[in-house]
Amino acid sequence: MNSSIIIISLTLIFAIYLGVRAKKGREMKLEQWAVAERNFGSIIMFVLMAGEMFSTFVFLGASGGAYRMGGPTIYVFCALTYVIPFWILPPIWRYAKEHNLITQSDFFAKKYNSQGLGLLVAAIGVISIIPYIVLQLKGFQIIVSEASYGMIPPKIAVWIGLIAVTIFVYISGIHGSAWTAVLKDILMITVILFMGFYLPQHYYGGIKPMFEALDKAKPGFLLIPDKGLSISWYVSICMTIALGQYMWPHCFGASLSSKNETALRKNTAILPLYQIVLVFILFIGFTAVLQIPNLQGTATDLALFKIAKASLPPWFVGVIGAAGLLAALIPCSLLILTAATLLSKNIYKQIKPDTPDKKLAKITRTLVPIIAIVSLIFTFYGGNTMVALLTMAYSFVLQLFPPLAFSLMRKNPVSKIGASIGMIAGVSIVAYQTLAGTTMATMFPRAPHLIQDLDIGVVAITVNTIVMLAVSLFTKKAVAVQKEPISQTGNL
Amino acid sequence: MKKWIALLTILPAIGSLTVVNRIEPYVFGLPFIVFWSTLWLILTSVCLITCNFIYDRKEQNK
User: Fold this and answer.
1) Are B33 and A71 in contact (CB under 8 A)?
2) Do B23 and A273 touch (CB under 8 A)?
3) pTM score, two decimals?
4) What is the largest CA-CA distance in chain B?
5) Structure confidence at residue A486 (pLDDT)
6) Who contacts A27 (Cβ-Cβ below 8 Å, separation ≥6)?
7) CA–CA dist A214, A354 (Å, integer)
8) Considering its fold, how many domains does chain A have in total?
9) ipTM
10) Do A175 and A137 share a structural domain?
11) Residue A389 domain-assigned (yes or no)
C-alpha cells in the first residue's frame, strides 16, 4: 500500500518540477504568461487541447456514467465535438492575433466594440469557471484518498494539490500547464487503454463476452431508451457539448496560444481519433456493473477505483492515482490561469483603465493564490450548491456561442444590445430551471418526450438566438439612424 | 443559401439513430450502437483531414 503513495508523491513532485522548469528564463509579461506569446507549435497545442478533454470528469464521471446510465453514456465521445472548433477556431485565432487579444472577453469586446459586453462575457466566464475548479478538486479528493487506500486524508490531499498548482501557474503560466499536460497524457492513455483491455479480459475473457453477459443480465441497459435519456436527449446533449466546449473561457484562451492557424486546424481534425480512448473508459465502467454491484448515487463515480482495487496490485492503483491526480490538476491550472486573467484584464482594468501593463501582470499573478483559496473554501463548504452550479455552468457558457458565431459572419446582423439581451435571456432561463429544480418535463407535462427530454442548454440557446436577432432588428437600425440619417433613409 | 441547405444533412444523421440503436450485430466485439458511434469518430477525423488538405491546396494556389 505504501508503494501507491510513493508513486503518487513522486508523480506530484515530478509534475511540479516540470511545471516550474517550463518558465526557462522567460520574462513573464501578461501575454507570455497567459497565451505564451502565441508561440506554441502543433505538438504542444495538441497536448494542451487534448488535455482539456481528459479531466477528472472523464476519469471518474465517464466510467461512473457507464456504470449508472449504461448505453446513453456514449454521449461522452460525440464525433460532433471537434467539427465546430475546426471551423470556428482558425478565424477566432486570426482575429485575436490581428488585434492582440488574449482572452475570450477581449474577443467579444472588440468584435462588438463594447466594453460592457466584454464585462458581461468575463462575468459569465468567471461564474462558470469557479464551480468547474471545485469539481476538479472534489475529484482530486476522491482520487487521492482512494488510490492511497485512505492513508492520505482528502482535505490534506486537496491542500497539497492546490499548492502545487498555484506554484507552477504563478511561476510559469500557461507554459506550466502545457509541460505537465504532456506527462499527464502519457500516463492517462497508458492506464486507460490497459484497464480497458485488461478488465473485460480478466473477468469475462474478452470485450464481446463482457457485453453479451451485460446484455443478458440487464436487457436494454446498453441501448438508448425510449424516454428519459432518449435519442432526443442524446442529440441535444451532444449539441450542448459540441457548441459549448470551446466557449469555456479556458479552452478558448488556450487555443489562442497556437503559433499558427494550421496547427489548430490539424489538431481539431485529429482530436476525434483521440476520443477513441474514451470508449475504453466505458469498458471499465461496463465491466464494473456486474462485478461491483450495488454502488448507488455519487458512489458510482468510484466504479473505476473499486474494480481496479479488486483486481490489480497496489502499485498499479498508485499509477492510476497518479494519472487521475494529473487529470485534476492540469485542467485546474488552466482554469485558475484563465479566471485570473479575466478578473484582472477584463474586470479590474475596465474599472481602472489607467493601470500600467506591468502592474496588471503582477495583479494577475497575485490573483492565482486568491482564486485557489476561494475554490478551496467552496470545495470544503459549498456542498450541493456547487453541483447545481456546475450543471448550470455548462449551459451558461453555451450562451456565448450565438453571438460568437454571428460575429464571425462577414456582415454581422447582431447588435451589441441584441447580443447582451440574448445572452442574459439564455443565462436566466438556465439559472431559473436549475435553481427552481424544474425540467422540461415538469414545465411541459403534456409535451411529447421528444420535447421533454431536451437538454436545457439547447432550449436556452434557442431562446437566446431568437431574442438576440429580434432585439438586433430594432437596435441596429436605431443606431444606424442616429449615425447616418441620410443614407439610411436612402436605403429604405 | 447553400450553406444552410447543407445543415439539413443533420436530419438523416439524427434519424439514423433510431435504426442503429441496437445490440446485434456485434462488430469487433462491440454492440452495434457503440461500434457506430466509434466508427463516426474515425469518419469525422477522415473528413476533417480531407477538408484540411483541400484548404491547404487552395491556399497554395492563391
Assistant:
1) yes
2) no
3) 0.83
4) 50
5) 40
6) none
7) 64
8) 2
9) 0.83
10) yes
11) no
In CATH, what number is assigned to the domain containing residue A141?
A: 1.20.1730.10
Residue A192 has which C-alpha cell? 486507460
Q: What is the distance between the alpha carbons of residues A346 and B41, in angstroms, rounded to a whole number?
A: 37
Q: Is A393 part of any domain?
A: no
Q: How many residues does chain B have?
A: 62
Q: Is B35 on the interface with A (CB under 8 A)?
A: no
State whether A339 and A424 are in the same domain: no
pLDDT at A269 over 80: yes
Q: Is residue A118 part of a domain?
A: yes
**Smallest Cα distance from A289 to chain B, Å:** 16
Cell numbers 456485434 label which residue?
B26
**Chain A interface, Cβ < 8 Å to B:** 71, 74, 77-80, 82-83, 86, 206-208, 211-212, 215, 222-224, 231, 234-235, 262, 265-266, 268-273, 275-276, 279, 282
Could you report the per-residue pLDDT of A388-436, keeping only the tens digit for each? 677 788 888 888 888 888 888 888 888 888 888 888 988 888 888 877 7
Nearest to A79 among B23, B40, B55 (CB): B40
- Both A404 and A367 in one domain: the answer is no
Range of the domain at A333: 2-384
Query: Contacts of residue A74 in chain B, CB cutoff 8 Å?
Result: 33-34, 37
> How far B22 CA lies from chain A's nearest CA (Å)?
6
Grid cell at residue A171:
511561476
A206 vs B29: CB contact, 8 Å cut-off? yes
Domain end (from A329, A358, A384): A384
A379 and A404 together in one domain: no
Judgement on whether residues A152 and A185 belong to the same structural domain of the protein: yes
Determine the Cα–Cα distance for residues A191 and A189; give it in Å rounded to an integer.
5
Is residue A380 classed exposed, middle or buried when 0-12, 13-18 and 19+ CB atoms within 10 A define those classes? middle
